[in-house]
Amino acid sequence: MAFARVLRGAGLEVSVGATLDFTRALDCVGFDTASGVYWAGRATLVHRPDDITTYDRAFEAFWCGLPAPAADEVIPPQPVAFDVELPEADDDDPGSRRLQPALTVRWSPVEVLRERDFASYTPAEFAQARRLMADLRLTGSRRPSRRRKVTRTHGTPDLRRTVRRSLRAGGEVAPPVFNKTGTRPRPLVLLLDVSGSMEPYARAFVRFVHAAVVSRTRVEAFALGTRLTRVTRELSSRDPDAAVHAAANRVVDWAGGTRLGEGLRAFNDEWGIRGMARGAIVVILSDGWDRGEPEALAEQMARLSRVAYKVVWVNPLKASPGYAPLAQGMAAALPHVDVFVEGHSLAALEEVAAVISQ
Known about the structure:
Layout: H1 2-9, H2 16-29, H3 34-45, H4 52-64, E1 81-85, E2 102-105, H5 109-115, H6 123-133, E3 142-151, E4 156-157, H7 159-168, E5 178-185, E6 188-193, H8 199-215, E7 219-224, E8 228-230, H9 240-250, H10 260-276, E9 281-285, H11 294-307, E10 310-314, H12 328-333, E11 339-341, H13 346-357
Helix pairs in contact: 2-3, 6-8, 10-11
């Protein structure tokens, strides 16, 4: 308990339950070796890799008599150690109980790219991110289908199949057949803002949209700029580079202005209200900057939200410190959005994929 208080004083979050786990671990390993005590505390009292350095210094202070770290002391960041080798303590030499862990450090460029903002990517990093983005799978939530399927568990008795099974057995009594309501994936509609303000993120988002189109059925993709352009056919190619090139040639207003309200009006009138958005998951990838009237955007978002199952807005600016949806377009659309998420990095797009799957 005294050691737990030292850790709390050094800035670690040590709960009462973790302290009890530490006492149970000490009861199992005993106090014979310094490494046993070290790992008993390391396994029960440390919950984040960033706290390992603080724990090591507090351990040396409590068990070896070195100065304890202060709670407000800034400890330089250390790389995560995957392999730690601790020397066994020599009972004849008390000084050998001071722990000097030998660290074997590894690092992964993939983890760095997952958290980095798309706007700060280099061309080489973006090429690697494209390969990682191709592995994204958007399964999507499912809804009940009119088709029924046979089930081994008890459901609704299927008299027709039961009678057919009995006739094939020569009229003998056959085991009953049951069926239940089947499911199918909900339609997915992706509306990508390709205006000039979205240029740092549009090239990554179009790869994300391509991964969605080729990974599942019933997906529609549109580009939003000064006009609405359907790019589902262009992004259906299995070759990512060819698909993106075809989509770029199809969209004539790439990196131009933004008229989200007019684009959504065209989508609702021509495709959405007629059936494409009914019961669908609609994903809008945009920063919310709009040159049109905010009232028009709010009206079209309200129409869309009434027929869609879920409206997801992906805004890469949401990850900025101190961000608030103060832009007129974003403020007008937000009341009609079900889920408002970031989209500035690979990790954020993985979160978007998880939201779509729910």
